[in-house]
Write a structure and sequence with these properties.
The chain is mostly helical. It has helices spanning 31-42, 61-79, 85-100, 112-149, 157-169, 172-194, 203-241, 244-250, 255-293, 298-308, 311-337, 343-375, and strands at 8-12, 19-26, 50-59.
Length: 377
């Protein structure tokens, strides 16, 4: 094995132009000293300085990287003809690698206020885009319904009945239990507050008025948004991921007619019925609390209910249900069609369907409450 030769790099200024002489073994063992020497020489030689590599000994990747940085591409191309083929190839490959590598530039820090405004702008843009998509999808559903209204042979009763069972019948127990408990809580809180004014008898009016106009339809719609909209998105999204919807189109069938319309019709039928059940259960929950804590018998409760609460309150609450049902079904189906094909996309759009449905239901309920109040209904 050949003994290692101490490497060096010297600048010979006695000749014109100056000559940078490279000698010895430029290997990893001498990297530290060679690094210091290279940094010192890099500031001393001029642009016309030539390099002499005739006395260069052994060379490895570490030494080649230092030589590439010290000499540059132009000098390397002029002075490597005396080197062995392996050393020339190593220098060329290392220099190309060094040139291709660049230190990532750190992005300048941005103002927090600008970032906040940017995120708000993106959120507003996304909200506007989603709103336009929902409106367009609603129009497509209405068009399909009107086109098929006069074609009874194309109505699909079996899917509608199956979806009524899934969205209505299966959801009835949880809706009944929830509204019963909420009715009991409202009655208890109302009795606690009204007792300070000696007006506990008006707890009956509070429970009946709140459930007939607001609580029954709102709680039912929120439950349907979380339960049914997510189910619609997951079902249609899974079909989209498995390319079943493309197969439906290939067979000449309309996905809107086959998948969307039965779900919309089923929820249009189920949600008003569930709202009616919610009204009854909420009032029954309030009546139970009145009977147990306020000594208001069921007969007195019904008498006060009949004398103080008009039928218009029942109609106002029930009139909201079809609109909520239509929007919940439309949003759930639309988010299902947006699925891109992965399981992650199915989960993301299912979450989006629930959030959008609840948001739309609450906003629409607030607008409806203001409208009915101004109309005196």
């Amino acid at each position: 094995m050949e003994p290692m030769t101490t490497p060096s790099a010297t600048l010979d200024t006695s000749s014109q132009p100056a000559c940078l002489r490279i000698t010895g073994d430029w290997t990893l063992a001498h990297y530290a000293s060679l690094k210091r020497e290279s940094e010192r020489l890099r500031e001393q030689y001029a642009a016309d300085t030539v390099a002499d590599l005739s006395q260069l000994g052994r060379l490895d990747t570490a030494g080649a990287s230092l030589l590439a940085e010290l000499l540059g591409s132009e000098r390397l191309s002029r002075c490597t003809h005396d080197l062995p083929e392996a050393s020339r190839a190593l220098l060329k490959n290392v220099y190309c690698s060094v040139q291709d590598y660049c230190i990532p530039v750190k992005e300048p820090e941005r103002n927090v206020l600008l970032l906040l405004l940017e995120r708000i702008g993106c959120a507003v843009g996304t909200l506007w885009q989603d709103s336009m998509q929902v409106l367009g999808f609603v129009g497509l559903i209405l068009e399909t319904l009107l086109r098929r209204a006069l074609q009874p042979h194309r109505w699909r009763f079996t899917p509608v009945v199956a979806h009524i069972e899934q969205t209505g019948l299966d959801a009835a127990p949880i809706v009944a239990l929830l509204t019963f408990l909420v009715g009991a809580v409202v009655a208890f809180l109302g009795a606690t507050v009204l007792a300070d004014f000696g007006a506990t008898i008006f707890t009956v009016d509070l429970v009946a008025f709140s459930f007939l106009r607001e609580f029954a339809v709102l709680l039912t719609a929120i439950l349907m948004a979380g339960r049914t909209a997510s189910a619609f998105t997951a079902q249609i999204g899974s079909m989209k991921a498995n390319e079943e919807i493309d197969a439906i189109r290939t067979l000449g069938l309309n996905p809107m007619e086959l998948l969307v319309v039965p779900r919309v019709l089923a929820l249009l039928i189920s949600l008003p019925l569930l709202t009616f059940i919610a009204m009854i259960c909420g009032i029954v929950g309030g009546a139970v609390v009145c009977a147990l804590t306020l000594d208001i018998s069921p007969a007195m409760f019904l008498s006060l209910l009949q004398s103080d609460i008009g039928v218009q309150h029942f109609l106002v609450g029930l009139a909201k249900a079809p609109f909520f049902a239509f929007l919940i079904a439309a949003i759930g189906c639309l988010e299902g069609f947006k699925v891109s094909g992965s399981a992650e996309s199915v989960g993301a759009h299912t979450t989006s369907a629930v959030v959008q449905s609840i948001f739309v239901v609450i906003v629409l309920d607030a607008v409806a409450a203001l409208f009915f109040m101004e109309m005196g209904w």
